[in-house]
Amino acid sequence: MGDARSTMVAGAASMIGQRGVGATSVRELAKHTGAPLGSTYHYFPGGKEQLVTEAVEWTSGRIETLLTRSTSALDAFDAFVESWRRLLKSTDFHASCPVLAVATEAPELGESGESVASQAFARWHGLIAGRLEGDGVDAEESRALAWTIIAGAEGAVVVARSQRSTEPLDAVAERLRSVVADAVDGAQ
C-alpha cells in the first residue's frame, strides 16, 4: 500500500468492516493507524463522509481487481468467495464487508443520489455478469445469477462472522458454485 494516505484508507475500510460506520470516525482512524490527527484532516478534508466513501471505493477496487483478473465465471466466483474467507480468518471473524456495512448503515452516502455502496455492488454485478456471459450464459440469467452470488456471499459472510466459523460461507459457496457450474455447462 505504501503511503500514509493509502494506509489510512485501508485502515478505515478495516474499521468499518469491524465496527461499522457509526463507530468509525476520523479521530478513531488516527488512533487505529497511528497517524497524527492533523494528517487525517489534511488527507480527508471532507471528514467522515469522504473517509467512508474512499474506504468503500478501496474495498470495491480490490474486489474488482480479483474479478477482472479471473479467467472464467467459476474462477471469478472462487476468487470472490476466497477474498471473504480470507478476511474472516485474518480478522478472527471480527470483520465483514465494509461495503455491506455502509449499505446498511449509511445507504444515502454518495453523490448524485446513488449511494457509494450501491455503485460498488453494481460494479461487482457487472463484472460477474460479464464473466458469466463470456462463458456463454444468457444475459438475463447472468444478471440474475450475479445478484444471487453477491447477495449469497455477503449474507454468508455475516452469518459466518456471527458463528465465528467459515462453515456458513463454505456451505453457501458450495451450493452457489454448483449453480454457476450448471449455468456455464448448460450454455456450452
Put the structure in a nutshell.
With 188 residues, the chain is mostly helical. It has nine helices and no strands. The model has no long low-confidence stretch (mean pLDDT 91).
Provide the number of structural domains. 1
Structural class by sheet pairing and helices: mainly alpha
The major β-sheet equals:
none
Order of helices and strands: HHHHHHHHH
Indicate the percent of residues in helices. Answer: over 70%
Mean pLDDT equals 91
How many beta-strand segments? Answer: 0
- What's the N-to-C terminus distance? 41 Å
CATH superfamily: Tetracycline Repressor, domain 2
What is Rg?
A: 17 Å
Second CATH tier, the architecture: Orthogonal Bundle
Q: Work out the strand percent.
A: under 5%
**Low-pLDDT runs:** none
The first-level CATH class is given as Mainly Alpha
Q: Enumerate how many helices there are, as a single number.
A: 9
Report the CATH topology name: Tetracycline Repressor, domain 2
Can you tell me the overall shape?
elongated
Structure explained in plain terms:
With 188 residues, this protein is mostly helical. Helix content is 77%, strand content 0%. Helix 4 packs across helix 5 and helix 6 crosses helix 7.
Summary keywords:
single chain; 188 residues; mainly alpha; Tetracycline Repressor, domain 2; 0% strand
Please describe the topology of this protein.
Blueprint: H1 4-19, H2 26-33, H3 37-43, H4 47-69, H5 73-90, H6 98-105, H7 116-134, H8 139-163, H9 167-187
Helix pairs in contact: 1-2, 1-4, 1-6, 2-3, 4-5, 4-7, 5-7, 5-8, 5-9, 6-7, 7-8, 8-9
